[in-house]
Model the fold of this input.
Amino acid sequence: MGKYKSNLIKTSAIALIAASTLALGGCATRTPLPVDNPAAASDYLIGPGDSVNIIVWRNPEVSMSVPVRPDGKITTPLVEDLQASGKTSTELARDIEKSLSKFIQQPVVTVVVTGFVGTYGEQIRVIGQAARPAALPYRRDMSLMDVLIAVGGTTEFAAGNRASLIRTVDGKQQRYNVRLDDLIKGGDISANLQMRPGDVLIIPESYF
Done:
């Protein structure tokens, strides 16, 4: 009888521990990763620090490559202080044509972006325990893995699975948990996700 009672106590204790473990596991749920939205991808917007090659058909004397100044404007022969930042290359070409039309009859302009930085609002920022924290120009179809490659991965002190992604959705900032260790060290592709312009990746330091 004593042996039976002892076994019963052990079985009850094991069941209690199992139930507690399941309860704790249920509390440790993560915020779901953001759902990819292909429609969110947009045309590249010129930003300060970009270089633009301006080609005016049959007018090589006003065709040249110029940088976009920190104030977001460009200056070329016959065109002074024209806003370039925040525009697509096509939009900028049409604006240059409008300005040149005062001096050239029916100008035809093509703008080619040759140096990519992007607008500040569209850059992807990586802060914390990245090997090289940086602000990266967003590229279409850019993934979390692409970002990690660009910053050289994480440091040895990083708590990769406690990293966070800050994303603006419908005008409001949302915070998501991301699993960098699972992605980098475990090769878990399900931990990868598509990045969006303006995303901020925060990689905290490990407690240990």
Confidence is low (pLDDT under 50) at residues 3-30. The chain has two domains: 51-115, 123-203. DSSP finds four helices and ten strands in the chain.
